[in-house]
Design goal:
Blueprint: H1 5-14, E1 24-27, E2 30-33, E3 38-40, E4 42-45, E5 54-58, E6 67-70, E7 73-74, E8 87-89, E9 105-107, E10 116-123, E11 128-138, E12 145-150, E13 156-165, E14 170-175, E15 179-181, E16 185-190, E17 196-204, E18 211-217, E19 226-231, H2 241-267, H3 292-301, E20 305-306, E21 337-339, E22 345-348, E23 361-362, E24 371-377, E25 389-394, H4 396-405, E26 413-419, E27 423-427, E28 431-434, E29 442-448, E30 453-458, E31 463-469, E32 477-481, E33 490-492
Parallel strand pairs: 2-11
Antiparallel strand pairs: 1-4, 3-9, 5-6, 5-10, 6-7, 8-9, 10-11, 12-13, 13-17, 14-15, 14-18, 16-17, 18-19, 20-31, 21-22, 22-33, 23-32, 24-29, 24-33, 25-26, 25-32, 26-27, 27-28, 29-30, 30-31
Helix pairs in contact: 2-3
């Protein structure tokens, strides 16, 4: 009969010993938040002095321990590399010690990869025993992002998304402080690194008043609850019923695409967490009658919004290697816009009374291909975060149309904009409301012209906010608008530029602007 490695070691120790003093190894499981410290409890019963024993903690490989105590001291020669300087013998209680048989260990700076089954093995020259400790590592995710849109019949669709949880969290809708709402649908999916994204939505009548909240939390950590609220009476910007259904359908489609990408990565050896089942429920009456053909046609043409944490959309410092040097030409700036000497800072003039449409400015260079990145500062030292602004890209003809018509163009404009009353919205043919816990202090903009993506990032939090997808068909220029009445300045940040850029953009074919959106 074959013996295990621990058994062989023990038999060698036991040779020549006539009597045995037996003990049992007792353990308890542990749960901790990522980044914290945790004690894995393990002790001997009855109370037995363990100072002269071998204490070995290991995961899968006995020969490569997480921690090894032998001959009265810690032995580091064979210790797993990822646990060096992170583990030590620490009693589970102040009154306990190694002499009293407490062989617990503490792990510092716990990582998601530490999840698993740890074996506590204790041996003397007379006896040995072991048991397993299961460590769970939890992660508190990001504050939810709410989006608000409207059906033609007046009903309001509120969508909620929160990323970065472990394990999958609970999500709860409520109207006002007390009334719990039943969700129209709920989905959980694993993203990059095995963390969970939760998505849900509710549909409410237009006659309803008050605020709707979406709360996301782990069942045993309600003190870390994340919540976002939105006033259901907020002014919506003409989103049709088919677009609401389209966004819902696209959200599910993108989640499926993300799952496929992550599966392929896992198949190639990318370390991922264990997949959990997804719960998907779609209330059919929420999709307008007769919308199927229109939705199918749209899906064949383009996707408007991307919320999924796909690997290619995650914030990366590498984007800054694609930085462009841009500034406002003071001579070409709108009459009611004040521009700093370096062409980087702007705000509205005190002695003017413009509309917001009058304050849009395009800057060189224009782009017809490639990938480009720039950043905008929305907070300066000693001042609050700027509340009102527009940032994105646009065609020359779209901006000309805005100034002449005093209204949003139907095509040629792709931007994120914020106003003091209603918060942050997207604009790309239709508008989409985004509820955030706080407005970004530094906004990163990444244009991937050839793949038709314009992505926005909160660079301070290193977080992807939203990606607008479109088929760019003509020259687009960086667009800025400091907005009327906001005293804080909009600041184009200077970033190192790897390669020189053309002095001027190619000439714009304004007649093609109406074909930009599909």
């Amino acid at each position: 009969m074959c013996c295990t490695v621990p058994q062989i070691v023990f038999l060698l120790q036991l040779a020549g010993v006539a009597t045995a003093v037996k003990f049992s190894v007792l353990v308890g499981n542990a749960t901790v938040l990522r980044g914290g410290s945790v004690t894995l409890p393990c002790w001997l019963s009855p109370t037995t002095d363990a100072e002269g024993m071998e204490v070995r903690w290991y995961l899968k490989e006995y020969q490569t321990p997480v921690l090894l105590y032998h001959n009265g001291k810690l032995q580091n020669a064979t210790q797993m590399e990822q646990y060096q300087n992170r583990t030590t013998l620490v009693p589970r209680e102040p009154s306990s010690s190694l002499k009293q048989g407490d062989v617990s260990i503490r792990i510092e700076d716990v990582k998601l990869t530490d999840v698993g089954k740890f074996t506590c093995y204790v041996s003397s020259s007379e006896h040995y025993d072991s048991d397993h400790v299961f460590l769970k590592v939890e992660e508190i995710g990001a504050s939810p992002i709410l989006s608000l849109s409207k059906f033609n019949d007046g009903r309001i669709n509120v969508s909620c998304m929160s990323t970065g949880w472990q394990p999958g969290p609970l999500l709860q809708w409520s109207l006002g402080p007390q009334q719990v709402l039943k969700p129209g649908g709920l989905r959980q999916s694993r993203g990059t690194g095995g963390l969970v994204t939760v998505q849900s939505w509710v549909v409410r009548p237009s006659s309803e008043s008050g605020w709707i909240s979406c709360s996301v939390f782990l069942p045993n950590r309600k003190e870390h609850l994340k919540e976002a609220r939105v006033d259901v009476n907020i002014e919506l910007l003409g989103v049709s019923s088919w677009m609401v259904a389209f966004i819902i359908l696209v959200t599910l489609l993108l989640a499926a695409i993300c799952a496929l990408l992550l599966y392929l990565k896992k198949k190639k050896g990318f370390p991922m967490g264990t997949a959990e089942e997804s719960n998907v429920a779609l209330i059919r009456e929420d999709v307008p009658h007769g919308a199927a053909e229109e939705l199918n046609a749209l899906l064949r043409e383009e996707v408007d919004f991307i919320w999924c944490e796909a690997p290619e959309l995650v914030y990366s410092e590498d984007m800054k290697s694609l930085a462009v040097d841009i500034s406002v030409n003071k001579d070409a700036a709108p009459a009611c816009m004040a521009v700093g000497k370096n062409g980087k800072m702007m705000r509205d003039k005190h002695d003017c009374d413009p509309t917001d449409y009058d304050l849009c400015v395009l800057v060189n260079p224009g782009f017809t291909s490639g990938q480009h990145y720039w950043e905008v500062g929305l907070k300066r030292d000693g001042t609050p975060v700027k509340n009102s602004w527009w940032v994105g890209v646009a065609t020359d003809s779209a901006v000309q149309s805005m100034r002449e018509q005093k209204s949003m163009p139907t095509s040629g404009l792709w931007c994120l904009y914020s106003d003091n009353k209603h918060g942050v919205h997207t604009k790309s043919g239709s508008s989409h409301y985004i509820s955030m816990a706080s407005r970004p202090e530094v906004l990163g903009i990444f244009l991937d012209y050839d793949n038709g993506r314009l992505s926005f990032y909160d660079t301070k939090l290193k977080r992807h906010l939203v990606t607008i997808k479109s088929n760019f068909r003509e020259t687009v220029y960086p667009l800025f608008n400091p907005s009327k009445g906001d005293k804080a300045v909009l600041d184009i940040l200077s970033l190192p530029v790897a390669t020189p850029l053309p002095v001027a953009a190619p000439e714009v074919n304004s007649t093609a602007a109406t074909a930009t959106e599909t």
